Amino acid sequence: MSILSAGTTAPEFSLHSTPDQSVALKEFRGRNVILAFYPADWSPVCSDQLSLYNELLEEFARCNAQLLAISVDGVWSHAALARERKYHFPLLSDFEPKGQVARAYGVYDEAAGVAQRALFVIDGDGVIQWSYLSPMGVNPGAGGIVKALEALPSNNIQKALPADAVQENP
């Protein structure tokens, strides 16, 4: 199976973000979603990639987008990683059945038993607008994500008001 492409309806899922909480894609209808599949918690490339995205959360929010990171690691590994690295976005566990969501998106590496490094931008209607499969050892950065978000016709980008447009309360 190959990576899902633009124009495809994003497969629905619900994955654990903590041992007792789940996050479902349908919860974000009306907002753009960035799905960042990555191979493993604690690996240097994955940690660098997720740290970059953590630094760009305000930019993603400006584009009305929620970042969701997905790997086959368990929730306890995710919790430790998020706590240590101070991540402020959900790390979702595609643990059991292992890789089920990665398979649905066409990014599960059977031989390695992990999700491939893949990115998806999904619009508020649940349609994939952009996808990218990166080599496993390469941090794909965020340029493609930002360009894809800014190209969406309904991204509801929050534009700053000019200074003279702000009125003081009388």
General description of the model:
This protein has helices spanning 44-55, 57-62, 75-85, 100-104, 143-151, and strands at 14-18, 21-24, 32-37, 65-71, 91-93, 108-109, 114-115, 118-122, 128-133. By secondary structure, the chain is α/β, with parallel strands linked by helices. It has a single domain, classed as Glutaredoxin. A 5-stranded mixed sheet has the order 5-4-3-8-9. The longest helix has 12 residues, at 44-55. The model is unreliable at 159-170 (pLDDT under 50).
> Unreliable runs, pLDDT <50, ≥5 residues?
159-170
Strand content bin? 15-25%
Series of H and E elements: EEEHHEHEHEEEEH
Any idea what the CATH superfamily is called? Answer: Glutaredoxin
Total count of helical runs of at least 4 residues: 5
Taking the sheet with the most strands, its summary is: 5 strands, mixed
Task: Compose a concise summary of this entry.
With 170 residues, the chain is α/β, with parallel strands linked by helices.
How are the SSEs placed, and which strands pair?
Blueprint: E1 14-18, E2 21-24, E3 32-37, H1 44-55, H2 57-62, E4 65-71, H3 75-85, E5 91-93, H4 100-104, E6 108-109, E7 114-115, E8 118-122, E9 128-133, H5 143-151
Parallel strand pairs: 3-4, 4-5
Antiparallel strand pairs: 1-2, 3-8, 6-7, 8-9
Question: What attributes does this structure have?
Answer:
alpha/beta, five-stranded mixed β-sheet, globular
